[in-house]
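Posting here for the record, re: erythose-4-phosphate.
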Amino acid sequence: MKFFLDTADISEIEEAASWGALAGVTTNPTLYSRVGGKLADFESHIGRICQIVGPDCPVSAESVAMTRDEIAEDGRRLAAIAPNVVVKIPTMVEGLAATRMLADEGIRVNMTLCFTVPQAMLAARAGARYISPFIGRFDDISEDGIQQVADIVEAVSNYDFTPDTVRGEQLEVIAASIRSADHVTKCALMGADIATVPFGVLKKMVKHPLTDAGIDSFMKDWEKVK
Ligand code: E4P
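Prediction output follows.
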């Protein structure tokens, strides 16, 4: 399983990158507005994130356009920021059409706001490089977010989706809208390719009270040795 950080916060990205396990970043309009971002600075902000994480880490930047041509235009502009930019597009008819246009031009797409297997299958066939099923938001409406990601992971694994025949890259499922370390456990057990996690969840993933207690007792005993 790879870990992406689900944030537009530069200091969180710098800190997480220093931990050595960061494989990518996902942003969305809400996350960008949360760090006080302004439209005029959006592209330079994405460029800064791309610089921090380096060329091997994909950085998802979302289009907010509503028609296929506008989304594709947005996508081309975003993809021109850096080679590791992935264009994030909502799973809807115009989004599917734009995904096909961009995929045919060799631009990677992350189809987001995906909630069902049929949506995921359509996104995969339209040429998405990544599909992002949301857990927390599905749970919020009393559905089973984890089961839904498990179903999508299984359905995708039934077929050979290689959207990027030039680079030979396979479609990957990004478990998104993750709210807890337990969500990460369940996604790892089902074989989700990637978990995109908020920084708060990433910090919780490192911690265990027995680890803290063990460090504490080792330190105390080492004092006796001195
Ligand atoms: C990531 O790609 C998604 O935009 C993000 O995980 C959504 O998370 P939320 O449902 O907690 O806003």
